[in-house]
Automatic annotation (TrEMBL):
<dbReference type="InterPro" id="IPR010230">
    <property type="entry name" value="FeS-cluster_ATPase_SufC"/>
</dbReference>
<dbReference type="InterPro" id="IPR003439">
    <property type="entry name" value="ABC_transporter-like_ATP-bd"/>
</dbReference>
<protein>
    <submittedName>
        <fullName>Fe-S cluster assembly ATPase SufC</fullName>
    </submittedName>
</protein>
<keyword id="KW-0067">ATP-binding</keyword>
<comment type="similarity">
    <text>Belongs to the ABC transporter superfamily. Ycf16 family.</text>
</comment>
<keyword id="KW-0547">Nucleotide-binding</keyword>
<dbReference type="InterPro" id="IPR027417">
    <property type="entry name" value="P-loop_NTPase"/>
</dbReference>
<feature type="domain" description="ABC transporter">
    <location>
        <begin position="2"/>
        <end position="246"/>
    </location>
</feature>
<dbReference type="Pfam" id="PF00005">
    <property type="entry name" value="ABC_tran"/>
</dbReference>
<dbReference type="InterPro" id="IPR003593">
    <property type="entry name" value="AAA+_ATPase"/>
</dbReference>
Length: 250
């Protein structure tokens, strides 16, 4: 699915990622953890193709195709979904209409016609039932007055509708209350399949009590310094990140 080779990236001439190697196969859930400032969000943004970042070395492949030269939008159309940490409010645009537009834009980019209204409604109904989203929520203006949990619900709903091949959820270090945490975890667990892959980025282990990752990677100073199974997340929760830093500098 995703193959990252020796990725080096910088922002404003400051080197942030310093040789990342990562392979994510279909059906897998990977967690990326690490201390604040280690480069987790940068990695997510670089995979998604955000243009503020410059790739200085290395490559990113999606299903065997080099995507380095593609713009963020093109990557999204190829099936990369990045959760937005700071969602915008769009007064007057309902959650439903926002989703319809997103779906049809994505189809258009693939040379497809708009999804027939009947199919769209069915998809919205099926996905919202799966995620236990009520009808009232669907008619609200996007992100307007949304609580943290509701923003997450909208984000997961969008992910469900777009059916990405690779979903990257970059969870901010704060602001995930129990409600929001459960929404994200349930969503990921319901949406994961043998055909897609998920990268969950989190500073804290507690999200991983609900989403059980197949692999855990620790990012430190722009490099993956340790990889393991789900037990690595527990070890980090118990011991913090300092031992990793010491191991690296030893
Ligand atoms: P994490 O998500 O692990 O907390 P980030 O990827 O957000 O880490 O940041 C990694 C490093 O890059 C930090 O030192 C941060 O200050 C720096 N950085 C991130 N974004 C920018 C930016 N827009 N301009 C300058 N430095 C940045
Ligand atoms: Mg940070
Ligand atoms: Mg971050």
């Amino acid at each position: 699915m995703l193959k990252i080779n020796n990725l080096h990236a910088s922002i404003e001439d400051k080197a942030i990622l310093k040789g990342i190697n990562l392979e994510v196969k279909a059906g897998e859930v990977h967690a990326i953890m690490g201390p604040n400032g280690s480069g987790k969000s940068t990695l997510a943004a670089v995979i998604a193709g955000k243009e503020e970042y410059e790739v200085n070395e290395g490559s990113i492949e999606l299903e065997g195709e080099d995507i380095d030269e593609l713009a963020a939008e093109e990557r999204a159309h190829k099936g990369i979904f990045l959760s937005f940490q700071y969602p915008v409010e769009i007064p007057g645009v309902s959650v439903t209409n926002f989703m319809k537009t997103a779906i049809n834009e994505s189809r258009k980019a693939k040379g497809l016609e708009d999804m027939p209204a009947k199919d769209m409604l069915k998809m919205i109904r099926d996905k919202s039932e799966l995620l236990e989203i009520d009808r009232k929520f669907l008619s609200r203006s996007i992100n307007e007055g949304f609580s943290g949990g509701e923003k997450k619900r909208n984000e997961i709903f969008q992910m469900a509708m777009l059916e990405p091949k690779l979903a990257i959820l970059d969870e901010t270090d704060s602001g995930l209350d129990i409600d929001a945490l459960r929404i994200v975890a349930n969503g990921v667990n319901k949406l994961k399949s043998k055909d897609n892959a998920v990268i969950v980025i989190t500073h804290y282990q507690r999200l991983l009590d609900h989403i059980v990752p197949d692999f855990v990677h620790v990012l430190h100073n722009g490099k993956i310094v340790k990889s393991g199974g789900k037990e690595l997340a527990h070890e980090l929760e118990a011991k913090g990140y300092d031992w990793i830093k010491e191991e690296v500098s030893a």
